[in-house]
Amino acid sequence: MSFTITDLEQLQTEHPEWQMELVEGKIVVMGPSDYESEEIGTRLSTFLNIWVMSRRLGRVTGSSAGFILPRIEEDDSEKRNLRAPDVSFVKAERLKKTKRDFVELVPDLMVEIKSKSDRIKPLEEKIQLFLQLGSTVGILIDPDKLTVTVYRLNQTPVVMQNGDILTLPDLLPGWELAILELWPPEFE
Questions:
Q1: What is d(CA 91, CA 89) in angstroms, rounded to the nearest whole number?
Q2: Which range scores top for mean pLDDT: 13-22, 23-32, 50-59?
Q3: Residue 133 to residue 153: CA distance in whole angstroms
Q4: For the chain, which has fewer Cβ within 10 Å, the N-terminal or C-terminal residue?
């Protein structure tokens, strides 16, 4: 059985506590993230939002924002993917007004944060899908290895670590973030 976005919306109405994605006609229920991964996502969203909001550059969203991706096969209108990156950014000119629904576009920046139970390969595949469909940058944050890997279409991924500075000049000119700032602090 192949599910549609309408089916997913119905399931969300029946089970609002579930976070779901629609992947090639299959509904994937996402479990809650571990605390550290969620904190990293919140930290990144905060750092991005401080820069983006004050300059009115676009919109930053978290892991619950759903994106209806372009059709995989033009002749199969039912096979639509609805995906939700952990953090995303959409340029202002591409989404001038927010919507009270899923948006039919690919974010300019999409970020996946490896949770305790995630495997790297599916996260990399998700990032590659978004890049192939039009995202400019995909980022994979791995709290286990303390690395941030930056992906761009048809380019070798760049692995960053503590001591490195993340910049995205093609999307957010002038924005900088020390990788070290992503990791949650330890309080004495």
A1: 7
A2: 50-59
A3: 10
A4: C
